[in-house]
Write a structure and sequence with these properties.
PAS domain S-box-containing protein/diguanylate cyclase (GGDEF)-like protein; binds ligand C2E; globular; 275 residues; binds magnesium ion; alpha/beta
Length: 275
């Protein structure tokens, strides 16, 4: 009976929604404690120069080592962190620990030069009035050259004060920090203020990369157009989510400057990244 199945389906759906809502509440309650209990972890994914095929830096990606639920990925707790404002404290933890990690690698690898560390920040974090002074102080404290720090900006739904976010990005750029636009053209990332941002790089989302090199020509045309736009604006291009040799070759042909993805490495522990 179609009607019966439909109703059963709706019940299952309601049940899932209910469970999701309950889990969100629990996440919210425990996330603050996670920061205090030091349960956050960073993983590091190499960013490769496509011309030399050498790593030029790492992107820091946050994880939560939950005592019961195991290692959680950002999609399981970042939305709650954004909603509750905890993202500001979480972001500060990420920045400080990513910079400390870079210093640690630099001291162990004296021959390696100009390694950069990319840290993700949402526009919500950039509305924090103290974000620039915190960044400046943490750079000074850790002794990292501001040019080694790359901030990857993702637009979030809770846009709020766009002007404050743009002002803070400009101030970060004045410190010498490099700015990148992450998740370009997906979700909320918009073109409308691209020309107003003092950005240095543009990151092409993996959703554009996955269909490269197939029989369809459109994915190639889209990626080619994004690369042309970025280069015309003087931005360096990083392609993310590269999983196959075909995609890598295609990105080289299209002139992408850098890339990252499982083809080279998954996000790694600090020791694996060092190795
Ligand atoms: P993102 O900045 O666009 O990061 C890229 C995501 O793609 C990461 O997921 C990474 O693990 C994944 N990835 C990398 N290479 C491949 C690949 O070849 N194939 C596939 N399928 N995936 C790949 P992750 O670590 O789950 O992070 C998701 C998002 O969470 C990030 O997207 C970023 O927007 C956000 N995020 C992560 N860490 C932080 C943080 O410390 N602060 C803030 N504000 N956001 C963060
Ligand atoms: Mg990113
Ligand atoms: Mg991205
Ligand atoms: Mg992405």
């Amino acid at each position: 009976d179609v009607k019966e199945t439909g109703r059963a389906g709706a019940a299952v759906f309601d049940d899932q929604m209910q469970r999701k809502a309950t889990q969100r509440m629990a996440t919210k309650t425990h996330l603050g404690g996670a920061l205090r209990r030091n349960e956050l972890r960073l993983r590091f994914q190499p960013i490769m120069d496509l011309r030399t095929d050498a790593p030029v830096g790492f992107e820091a990606l946050v994880r939560w080592e939950h005592p019961q639920r195991g290692l959680l990925s950002p999609s399981e707790f970042l939305p709650v962190a954004e909603e509750s404002g905890l993202i500001v404290d979480l972001g500060r933890w990420v920045l400080e620990n990513a910079l400390r990690q870079l210093r640690d690698w630099e001291s162990r690898l004296p021959d390696v030069r100009d390694l950069s560390i990319a840290v993700n920040v949402s526009t919500r974090q950039l509305q924090d009035p103290g974000c620039i002074s915190f960044t400046e102080e943490t750079l000074a404290l850790t002794g990292v050259d501001p040019r080694r720090l790359h901030l990857e900006i993702t637009e979030t739904t809770l846009m709020g004060d766009v002007e404050a976010a743009i002002r803070h990005m400009t101030q970060a750029a004045e410190l010498g920090v490099r700015l990148g636009i992450d998740d370009f053209w997906v979700g909320h990332s918009s073109l409308s203020y691209l020309h107003r941002l003092p950005a240095h790089t543009l990151k092409i989302d993996k959703s554009f990369i996955q269909d490269l090199g197939g029989t369809e020509t459109r994915p190639t045309l889209i990626v080619e157009t994004i690369i042309r736009l970025a280069h015309a604006l003087g931005l360096d291009v990083i392609a993310e989510g590269v999983e196959t040799e075909t995609q890598r070759a295609e990105l080289c042909r299209l002139g992408s400057d850098k890339a990252q993805g499982y083809l080279w490495a998954r996000p790694l522990s600090p020791d694996d990244a060092l190795a």
